[in-house]
Amino acid sequence: MEHEELIRIARRRAGMKFGIFIHLKVFIAVNTLLFVVNQQTTPGFSWFAFPLGGWAIGLSIHGLAVYLSGSGLRERMVEDELRKLEARRSPGAR
Length: 94
Fold this sequence. Notes:
Layout: H1 3-41, H2 49-69, H3 73-89
């Protein structure tokens, strides 16, 4: 790979990691606010747990997607597919 390609990949990965960081901060802020509103309006029923749980699942999936893509799995799959396509395209492959 050329240096420019490595820089592009590094920037994309850093952007994805920054995105999960922002997502986590918003998750904490909003769910803290929902908890406070819940305690002030209906302290006998913890309804804030429903959006908290749903959002936690979404945040977990986002985190897995970011950190699994950083493992190089996607790049290895792309390289594998490129090798298959190039093998089909070359005249001696058949």
